[in-house]
Design brief:
There is one protein chain. The protein has a domain of 174 residues. Helix 5 packs across helix 6. It is built from ten helices and two strands, in the order αααβαααααααβ. The chain is globular, with a radius of gyration of 17 Å. The longest helix is centred in the first third of the chain and has 17 residues. With 256 residues, the chain is mostly helical.
Length: 256
């Protein structure tokens, strides 16, 4: 039984990630995957595939685009002048907008309002991705192989789907099917459901009508992390995680 993502697994999924970075990131990656129950074959494959695309194989932890495209985006909680630039995409899954930074910071115990780039640091980066994955109910979608639905939850559309699918197919091949990371969700009491999606949400993802089961409807507002509407966002991947490095190649990933 395989109990963690190994260096060989990560290398085979993301061959462009340098060995030194793999060694640096693996402990934080495995810890976050355990914490947020991304701990089985299908969940891990979908998670790592999406991260590989969003961060150009974990090489980019800050969006390259200036963030001006997000200015005034109330759906992202950007209500103050300068919010678009300050709260552009951060972390390997590109947490975007004041509202998402605030919610992520509250959950992880980080002041992301005053210091949004804290989630570009490896100890926090993978927890931010795990938090996003968990709060959007993506484990349940991964369990059913609803990869397009996961992409829509992350991207707001299907940008870069072919690239994402390439990583997903690769991850499904190289991750052992017996992966069991003995996950423990450290943030939620044992008797509280967390990160699940309702039959109605699953039906919407697959364009099929939900079963007629009496339920109590709870309305939630989900803030997406990205937009397909603004040309400035096109080609944005994020600045490589090297302090002060300004040589990141914007062509490394599609718009997210």
């Amino acid at each position: 039984m395989t109990s963690e993502i190994t260096d060989n697994i990560l290398r085979d999924i993301m061959p462009n990630l340098p060995a030194a970075k793999r060694q640096l990131y693996l402990p934080f990656l495995n810890s976050a995957m355990q914490e947020f129950e991304i701990a089985t074959y299908l969940r891990a494959a979908a998670f790592l595939a999406q991260l590989a695309h969003e961060s150009a194989e974990l090489r980019f932890f800050e969006e390259i685009a200036s963030g001006k495209a997000y200015e005034g985006r109330k759906d992202l909680g950007n209500t103050q002048p300068g919010d678009g630039v300050k709260y552009k995409g951060h972390g390997p899954i590109q947490i975007t907008g004041r509202a998402n930074h605030a919610a992520c910071g509250k959950a992880l115990g980080l002041d992301l309002i005053n210091n949004p780039t804290l989630i570009t640091q490896p100890p926090n980066a993978f927890r931010s991705a795990g938090w996003f994955w968990d709060t959007r109910g993506l484990n349940a979608l991964a369990d059913q192989r609803l990869f397009k639905a996961i992409t829509k939850k992350i991207n707001g559309g299907l940008n870069g789907l072919d690239d994402r699918q390439k990583y997903y197919d690769r991850a499904l091949r190289v991750i052992p099917e017996d992966l069991d990371m003995v996950a423990k969700n450290l943030n939620v009491p044992a008797d509280e459901e967390h990160g699940d999606v309702t039959p109605a949400v699953l039906a919407a993802a697959t364009n099929t009508p939900p079963a007629a089961t009496p339920t109590t409807t709870v309305t939630t507002t989900v803030v997406t992390t990205s937009t397909d509407a603004t040309p400035e966002v096109a080609g944005a991947a994020g600045a490589e995680f090297v302090a002060g490095d300004a040589t990141a190649d914007a062509s490394a990933s599609d718009a997210d």
